[in-house]
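1st attempt posting a full record on here, be nice pls
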Amino acid sequence: MRGATAPVREGPDGPYATLAGLGPRSALEAVRLELTADRPGRAAAHAGEEWVYVVRGQVLVRVGEEEVALAAGDALHFDAAARHALWSRGGPATVIIVSVAPAPARPPHGPAGG
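the predicted structure (as tokens):
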């Protein structure tokens, strides 16, 4: 998917574009999010892992009780089950967020050659 042509939607944390192409059946979700608010966005918690990469600007990320300041080129990887929120610091910021949900449980395989 080409980022320049990805449809932009308005979300609770700002405009965002979905960058992953498999849709709802995918365990991976990637979005580009434009942050403008210098205050905490809505907090979220969900199964899986999350990776945040700052493309432009400065961002504060709260994971649980810890706050981490990130600048352009910085990234943060964390357990998405922890309550987390992010917001811009000192002006607009652009982030790429990649979330990966846990793989569904698979039935055990029988012995080789079955």
